[in-house]
Specification:
This protein folds into three domains: 9-133 and 182-231 and 315-400, P-loop containing nucleotide triphosphate hydrolases (Rossmann fold, 3-Layer(aba) Sandwich); 246-313, no CATH class; 405-467, no CATH class. The radius of gyration is 24 Å and the shape is globular. Helix content is 48%, strand content 8%. The protein has 17 helices and ten strands. The two termini are 44 Å apart. By secondary structure, the protein is of the alpha/beta class. Strand 5 and strand 6 form a beta hairpin. Helix 15 (419-426) runs antiparallel to helix 17. The chain has a six-stranded parallel beta sheet, sandwiched between helices.
């Protein structure tokens, strides 16, 4: 029997609404653990409804860390700041002889904490001691930032869509902080992995191994539910949020923003941080209509219905992105360092079977992991596990800049970032109609109005793009 792992870590991942927090508490009670929050929105103080925080009763006496630890006036932590804080908390938990258990839906945070190979500049401050940004150009219009990025890092500039301000901004910030283009840093990290003394080797399952891997021996438990069951569950949760006082939290945030803007004379950036939490911006119009008291009952009802539908749609889309991150990024990252057999999917679709299909197998797997015993075959736990634990491709496109290729359709104006995006677009009916319209316009050489290309294909292109570069909007 192999030796028990030294300084083990259990990470629980999955979409919102699958019961990750409940499982974390059960694991902590069974194995003398403490829980570390890995959700970007739950870092903020207060707002338990919008951020879906676990309640004191649900904690069952288990200590929770990095939960409600920053003020509303603070921006969301960079991944580097989160990792530094989390590593300190993990050391404290271990010093008490306890098992650290990471749980949260911000999988970018989770993956950066689990793996050693993260950008070195993340921990560097973005502002000076007086609170001003170190690099004022990052506050310029997106076009200005993109032009500067094209100068210093054309590879990264060509990767991003021109409207992706945060990603363009981040890539330039990496250069400004380190003096190195982000694309060069990514290449250096890739070469480090490939040239590691143990790479590219294979274990008996054919998985690549690599020394530059996990920070600690890690067990990953993925709590999953089929979308046919999960989506209605998430939809009904919005009604429960309203019953628990969602609008009061929307009002709290709105009043806080108004107060900040009055004090500083500057508009609060609502494109990041707590302001992008699902359930806030979607209900602003309804809250305004309520407080204005001039809208009719019918108008109020319609506005409320629209707000509920927007919140439900946003939550479903977020859950979809979370699954994509696990399947595209986390799975490949684990496989590439030889730990693809350390992630287990637990099917929480049927809540009436929660004990037998989630709690019991999680306890058994965790016990084996902590004792150093052989782990079961993850694919044999369920049919869903066999399907979901197979990566959609054997590489993470984000780590393959040689495959990045941005093209702009002259007929439609659509921007495609990958070959797959481009193929989807040029095969679409909208593209063919736009090409036909352009030819007709060129032939007549005159038109009172410019021909506007149909854009029905944008949904397909966006879906493909999200599979290649999934982004966690709530993390910002």
């Amino acid at each position: 029997m192999a030796a028990a792992p030294v300084k083990p870590l259990v990470a629980i991942v999955g979409t919102t609404g699958t019961g990750k927090s409940d499982l974390a508490v059960e694991i902590a009670r069974r194995f003398n653990g403490e829980i570390l929050n890995g959700d970007a929105m739950q870092l903020y103080q207060g707002l338990p409804i919008i951020t879906n925080k676990i309640t004191q009763d649900e904690m069952k006496g288990i200590p929770h860390h990095l939960l409600g630890c920053i003020g509303l006036e603070e921006g969301t932590w960079t991944v580097g700041r989160f990792v530094n804080k989390a590593l300190g908390v993990i050391d404290e938990i271990r010093s008490r002889g306890k098992l650290p258990i990471l749980v949260g839906g911000t999988h970018y945070y989770t993956q950066s904490l689990l793996f050693k190979d993260t950008l070195p500049d993340e921990a560097l401050p973005s502002t000076n001691e007086d609170g001003r940004r170190q690099f004022p150009i990052l506050d310029e219009p997106t076009g200005v930032i993109l032009e500067k990025l094209k100068e210093v890092d054309p590879v990264m500039a060509d990767r991003w869509h021109p409207n992706e301000r945060r990603k363009i901004q981040r890539s330039l910030e990496i250069y400004l902080k380190t003096g190195k283009p982000a694309s060069q840093i990514y290449d250096e990290q890739r070469l480090k992995r490939e040239l590691s003394p143990s790479a590219p080797n294979s274990d008996p399952k054919g998985e690549r191994t690599n020394d530059a891997g996990l920070r600690s021996p890690t067990l990953v438990l993925w709590v999953h539910a089929s979308k046919e069951v999960l989506y209605p569950r998430l939809d009904s949760r919005v009604d429960k949020m309203l019953d628990r006082g969602l609008l009061a939290e929307v009002e709290t945030l709105t009043n806080f923003r108004t107060s900040c803007e009055a004090q500083t004379g500057q508009t609060v950036d609502q494109s990041r941080g707590i302001w992008v939490s699902i359930g806030y911006k979607e209900f602003l119009d309804y809250q305004t209509a309520l407080t204005g008291r001039s809208a009719s009952r019918l108008d109020l009802a319609n506005t409320k219905t629209a707000a509920i539908e927007k919140t439900q749609a946003g939550t479903r889309q977020y859950a979809k992105r979370q699954v994509r991150w696990i399947q595209i990024k986390l799975l490949n990252a684990l496989i590439n360092v030889g730990h693809g057999n350390n992630i287990f999917l637990l099917d929480g679709t049927d809540l009436s079977k929660w004990e037998s299909q989630v709690i019991q197998p999680a306890n058994d797997i965790t016990n084996r992991f902590l004792l150093g015993q052989p782990l079961p075959d993850a694919a044999e736990l369920s049919r869903t596990a066999r399907e979901m634990l197979t990566p959609k491709r054997d590489y993470d496109l984000a780590q393959r800049p040689d495959l990045w290729q941005k093209r702009v359709c002259e007929a439609c104006g659509t921007v495609a970032v990958t070959e797959n995006d481009w193929n989807l677009h040029i095969k679409s009916r909208a593209h063919r109609r736009a090409v036909g319209a352009k030819k007709k316009q060129d032939n007549v050489k005159a038109s009172s109005r410019p021909v506007k290309a149909p854009r029905e294909d944008l949904v397909d292109v966006l879906e493909s793009y999200m599979e290649n570069f999934p982004d966690d909007e709530r993390m910002s």
